[in-house]
Structures are given as structure tokens and as C-alpha cells.
């Protein structure tokens, strides 16, 4: 009998019975390389800073207290809200949000264009989208800084063409950071949206046109609801890494464009770092990301019901 195995049991029954053992390597991998680092980070966030770097194994909430409250230089003043770190988090959120919006505005038409080409040319367009990822992110970010600096090719061209009379100071600005985030994560938006558009039944658009629907109405009421899973996946894939990015803020930004990824990185550099505070900031960032994902999952469950 097709699908039968020795002993009379079907292959599906054998796979079902051996499922836990087959999944064991995956669970071990996840436990070692995903769960353990998060647990270690959570534990370190409750430890005491060692002034020469590292931690002292004395549990305390000092790192979280330092993040949210300002108690003065010597810690003897009444607590006030520490807006410095909250402002850095807020800047990271709106920078990541803008990068997601811009990536969607450019990525959706790009994905639509690729998905509506002939099947034999689509791989070539996707190949062009992925070419930047052949180069390390650090090298790409440094190249972006070289491109937009005061004496870079962009300013030289604008000066030569007479568009501007003096160089534009683009480096160390929010614009430069946003440009770096957008450039780094745009393909993360294009690819999942393309996958959704490729499965779209274009006869639905034809039916809408037969019912005298204009292009905007067709896009809003027919196309977007169908390709929404790809859009949501792309937004998550852009927003989450943008929120914790530190290369673009470090290389393209400055003190006024500091983001949470840079703040966390600074706490683990050299002997003067504050490991518990960096771990606490990382856990707060993780909580924000998980909160966003849980809200999306809850909203999606309500829609399905």
C-alpha cells in the first residue's frame, strides 16, 4: 500500500510518533543561541555595575532606576523622570517608523512592478534588489557617508550643476540617519510584498473595473486587503531592525541623533561601560518589540474571528 512502512504503520504515523525526537536539534539550537542569550541579558540587567567593567553578582534594580529616574549626581535628591533616555527611545521609535513608512511607499510600487513583469524576467529584477546584500552593512553605511559628506560626489555634482552654491551639511543629521536606515532595510519590504502580490488574482481588479471602480478604490478595497499579510510582514521586518540599529546612527548621525542601539552599544565598550544599564536598556527595547508584535497578533486574531 502506498505510504505504508514496515510493520503496517503509515509513514505519517511514524513521523508523528518521532516528532519530538526530530525536533530536538532545533529546540537545542533555539535554547542555546536564542533563549540563553536573552536570559543572560535579563539576569545582567539586575546586577550591580563593577567600576572596572563587568558586573558584581549583587541583585538590584539600579539599572532600571537609572533609566527612568534622575536622582542627582550623588543619588541623594528626590527622583525626577529621566527624559534623556526616554527621548532616545522616542527618537528611535519615530526614526524606525519613518523608515518603515518610506520603505513601504517605495517598496510597494517596486514589488508591484516586479510582480507584473513576465515570469522569465522577474528573477532578474529580484536579483538586482538583493545585490546590495552581497556587501557587508558596515561597508555600505560607510559608502553612504562618503557619498553624502560635504566633499562627497553628491555635493560635488550639485555644486557643479549650479543647484546649490555651497555644500549641504547632510552628515550628522536626522536626515542622514533616516537615509541610512531606509537604504539598509528597503529590500526587507520589497521581498515579502512581492511574494504577496505575486499570488494576487488580477481578475479581481478586472472585476472591480467592470463595476466602474476607479484605480484608487480598487487599490484600497480590493488589492490592499489581499496583499495585507505581505505588507505587515515587510513593516515588521523593517521596523524591528531599524529600532535597534546602531551603525547608521553611529556613522551617519551625531550626538543629537543618538538612538537606542547606539546607547546599548556604548554600555558594553571598554572598561568604563555599564553592563547592567546596557542590559536593562536592551530588555526594555525587547519589551517594546514584543509588545508591538503581541498587539499585531491580537488584532489579527480578532480580524480572523
From TrEMBL:
Pfam family, one: BPD_transp_1
Gene source species: Aliiruegeria lutimaris
CDD domains in UniProt: TM_PBP2 (cd06261)
Protein name according to UniProt: Spermidine/putrescine transport system permease protein
Membrane-traversing stretches: 26-47, 93-114, 126-148, 175-197, 218-240, 275-295
Gene Ontology cellular-component annotations: plasma membrane
PROSITE patterns associated with the record: ABC_TM1
Membrane-related topology note: Multi-pass membrane protein
Biological process annotations from GO: transmembrane transport
Stretches assigned to the ABC transmembrane type-1 domain: 89-296
The family this protein is said to belong to: Belongs to the binding-protein-dependent transport system permease family. CysTW subfamily.
Compartments, record wording: Cell membrane
Principal location class: membrane
UniProt keyword terms in alphabetical order: Cell membrane, Membrane, Transmembrane, Transmembrane helix, Transport
Matching InterPro entries: MetI-like, MetI-like_sf
